[in-house]
Design goal:
The protein is about 35% helix and about 15% strand. It has about 170 residues and is of the alpha/beta class.
Length: about 170
């Protein structure tokens, strides 16, 4: 069953052991970037050095168009036979935005709200990074629907770190 897992960095070792993913996406600040886990194929590990900021004026390494295009190109190579893991520091913002973006890329136009609501149901703590979502919306030519959908679900329950979240594609009609 095609499945995207969203995880925090601290839960990543257990998630990797439990789910044996075929693809891994890391979204961490440059100074905290990790190496590819031992035994995992480096060509199936996308490492995006990006800070969790929503305004490029607020700091270095904000999300940008290159991050989104790299994410989309990488995710389009995933065949779904084994899970794809996406993680950031807490599993709340950057990785949730990345998962949302990949799900929208695989879905039909107009599914943005359904996908955002299903993420909220499965992850009450999800707070997708707004800038990543905006950039993905532009990249996928979704005419603001992705941004509106994330605004509609709100910021979520405040947590220090999210629990790993399973996002099976079939739950999103994909």
């Amino acid at each position: 069953m095609p499945l995207i897992l969203v995880s925090s960095l601290s839960a990543l070792p257990q998630v990797m052991r439990t789910y044996q993913p075929s693809h891994l996406v890391t979204l961490l600040s440059p100074e905290f970037m990790i190496e590819t886990p031992g035994g995992f194929p480096p060509e199936r590990h996308l490492r995006l050095a990006v800070n969790d900021i929503c305004d490029p004026a607020l700091g270095p390494c904000p999300p940008d168009e290159d991050h989104i295009s790299s994410l989309m190109e990488f995710a389009r190579l995933w065949d779904g036979k084994r899970p794809m893991v996406m993680h950031c520091w807490a599993g709340v913002s950057r990785s949730m935005a990345a998962a949302y973006s990949v799900l929208c890329d695989r879905a039909w136009r107009g599914a943005e709200f359904r996908i955002a609501r299903e993420i909220r149901t499965r992850a009450p703590h999800a707070h997708p990074n707004r800038l990543l979502v905006q950039l993905a919306d532009e990249y996928l030519d979704r005419e603001g629907r992705m941004v509106q959908a994330v605004q509609e679900i709100g910021p979520g329950v405040i947590v220090e770190e999210g629990e790993p979240v399973e996002l099976p594609l079939e739950a999103f009609g994909l």
